[in-house]
Amino acid sequence: MGAVCGKGSGEGNEAAISTRVEGITGGGGGGGKKALPKLPTNAIKSVPEDHQFIEESLARILLFSKLDSGLQRKIVAEMYERNVQAGEILINEGDTGLAATELYIVKSGIFEVLQRRQGQNVRVNLKQRGDCFGEISLMYDCARNATVAATVESVVWVMDRAVFRYFVREQQENQVSQVELFLNSVPILGSLSRDERMRLVDAIEEVVYQQGQKVITEGDNGDLFYIIKEGEALVFQGQGQRKVNHLFKADFFGERALLNDEPRIATVEASTKLVCLTLKRDTFTEILGPLEQLMKREKSPQVVAQKLAKLQPRGSNQRPAAEVLIKRKKKGKNGVESWEVVRAKGHLDEVQELRKGGSMAVDPEAKDANTLVLTEGTVLGGGAFSRVSIVNEDSTGRVYALKRMRKSAVVQCPEHVYCEQAITKNVAHPFCIRQYASFQDKYHLYFLFDLMSGGDLMDVLVAEAKVINRRVPESSWQVACLAPNVKMLQGMSEELAKFYIASVLLALEYLHNNNIVYRDLKPENVFIDVNGHVKLGDFGFAKILDSGNRTYTFCGTPGYVAPENVLAHGYNFSVDWWGLGVVMYVLLTGRQPFSTPKTDDPMVVMRRIVDENYVVKYPPYISPAAKDLISRLLERKPARRIGMLSGRATDVKKHKWFEGFNWAEMEARRNIAPRKPRESDINKRIKELMETERRTAGKTPKETPEELAECEAVFSDF
Ligand code: ADP
Ligand code: MG
């Protein structure tokens, strides 16, 4: 069944449900984030009992002490031990490059620090347990300024620059996207240009409050506004009498301070340790000018026109354009291969970013250094209107996944395409697919994504599912060995499913923290990379919900939609937790929870979803803990559904099905994926896809000139 979209669909409204027009994948934001660098094979990681000691030792290191505690912990957990024999030289004075990328802390033993003075090695210092050296190597390539040798058998903890940088960069990217999401959600800031936004992002400062500390006090004058980065806060009114709100990560308060100098209308108190990003009114006006002017600008004819232009038909594209050439091999009638070149229109900023660091020869077809040249390779997937293939970027040699959608197929729901385009620009998370660029030609829209060459979770399920024989007692008093032998379908193992469900859970937690509801969870939208790790993709239905807001659009895939979605009651993040429950059921059983007795009618399935009397059946091989978690996720009342309760995502992480699961490792993507995509599976898949391609070749619909004109108008801002 395909995914669907429509407004307020419900019983008797089947006509409103169109089969999902081929969608959109996405993820990403920021520029060129790399994977967490690998530690050397055989590296022995620092043990948790040592972490506090290491953190204390590192407190003296400037770069490190400036990081927030969560990040410090992540980095310390990535440090590993190295044994150094007595007399062995750990650092050589003058060494550069790879020999100068590590910082060390002495775990045990003694080191002498030697410097060459007039041809002689002079001992200038001794280092022992807790001492650090090599800080500068975390910053840049700098020759070692001394030799360090062990005088007895010793052990050091090692921190690699690449690992350190990785986390620092991740934090910054996350911070920028958090602030950007905030800026996007304040109506009066709607007219800011990207440049103005970035300047505000840069002006933001971090402030830490201890538990119980007051952040702002009712009645006081204030000129700061706050976004919560870490921790929680409570809001009181009536001089601390009345608790009126509970704020979490990504919530913001005090924004009135930006508008005027009225006294604060509430008191906000840190209910845990609280880290806030703050912006001063002065800074704000410095960057954007007086607010009255900004408000005027909001109502100015240009801005009004801009806003109208966001509704169809769309206005002109304001981002500078750049050319994208897509080259593909084509077989002529006589069997001779030739190159076909498609010229598409992209965005200059993205093209320049993609070509950064590229040194290879640029295709002669390219007019100038601002042209992106992509060469198409194998097809990776797709449906009726979309097609995903591997492409090679000419100047850097990097490979990506290129998704192509037929404009005429998505022209009825353009807001999804635009939403996805905007959201995936801001999403930066290891479990969400990144989008690097978008562009279009006359007939198609394109997205350039992280390459996930291992297929999707449905492929894994198909490969892992098997028919088993199981004795099922017909009643409780029947002796098990006499019970009839029943053939039944079993999905993947619970261990394997746990890895996938945990990955998706982390992606959802991140999205929800950033006010994004995903709305189309299903195995087909969870993609697998070469190593077997997974990322959530296909953000075609994702949407930003302003704090406390609900959305009413009917959206999703029939077997996976939540009751509140079907009933158009207005919903928010709850639908994703329901979706997770359905996915978990599907992975474990190979079937959908609302599909028995078998039916092809999506409306029958959706009636069962809302019907309190329809009871989901669990095959006997499912563990009690798994069954319990699924049933809590498939709770029909959103307010009672796990994931929506006070602990939010944490409640799901703490469920007994995940007992003993290493979340820290998972979050850092340090764990080895339990299943690597098999080469044979991938090849088989590709063969099937090429087969389908061949069969459907030339069968693409021909648009009328009117349709083409409509597509052009609707997607002119893409
Ligand atoms: P649709 O909106 O048509 O469902 P998807 O974005 O889900 O499109 O992509 C369709 C299929 O293409 C996926 O199921 C997957 O097999 C493949 N695919 C999509 N994105 C990627 C990617 N980034 N890397 C590799 N394969 C992909
Ligand atoms: Mg999909």
| Strand composition percent | 15-25%
CATH evolutionary superfamily of the largest domain: Transferase(Phosphotransferase) domain 1
Radius of gyration: 28 Å
Fill in the CATH topology of the largest domain.
Answer: Transferase(Phosphotransferase), domain 1
Secondary structure class reads alpha+beta
pLDDT under 50 segments (min length 5)? 4-33, 306-317
Per DSSP E runs of 2 or more residues, the count of β-strands stands at 33
What's the CATH first level of the largest domain?
Mainly Alpha
Mean pLDDT: 82
Report helical residue fraction.
Answer: 25-40%
Largest sheet: 7 strands, mixed
CATH architecture level-2 label of the largest domain:
Orthogonal Bundle
Strand order within the widest sheet?
21-20-22-23-24-26-25
If helices are DSSP runs of H or I spanning 4 or more residues, what is the number of helices? 22
So what's the oligomer here?
A: single chain
Q: Distance between termini?
A: 28 Å
Ligand kinds: adenosine-5'-diphosphate, magnesium ion
Number of domains: 4
Shape: globular
